[in-house]
Amino acid sequence: MDINKVILAGHLTRDPELNNLPSSAVCNFTVAVNYRYKTTGGERKEEVAFVACVAQGNTADVVVRYFSKGKPILVEGRIKTESWEDGSGKRQHKTRVWVENIQFIDSKTGGC
Question: Is this model's pTM higher than 0.70 or not?
């Protein structure tokens, strides 16, 4: 059985961008997700992943209306990798999370 499910909780890195296509609204945004850990030597470390996300339809409208740079967000979706050839014939790839659901996160407590 295959499962393609992603749940991220982080902060928007910039204001979401809305594009109105003939079929529906599409919103692109990036979520920064922090991972904190201790090394075997006890040193505290932090890694940040920047995850590209795409929302469509009503979800896109909600993201644009209520979220902006720095706001916390919880995203549920699936991973999709798109491939194409650029102008020079090189194969390009981009992996993004296609958003199925979003939730507001309380920025004071970090909870949902």
Answer: yes
Distance CA 31, CA 73 (A): 8
Domains in the chain, CATH or no CATH each: 6-104 (2.40.50.140)
Q: Helix (H, G, I), strand (E, B), or coil: what is residue 112?
A: coil
Contact at 8 Å (CB) between 105 and 9?
yes
Distance CA 38, CA 60 (A): 37
Task: Output the DSSP codes for 73-89.
Answer: EEEEEEEEEEEEE-TTS
10-43 residue pLDDT tens: 999 999 999 988 888 999 999 999 999 999 999 9
**Contact 30/51 with Cβ under 8 angstroms?**
yes
CA distance linking residue 1 with residue 16, whole number of Å: 34
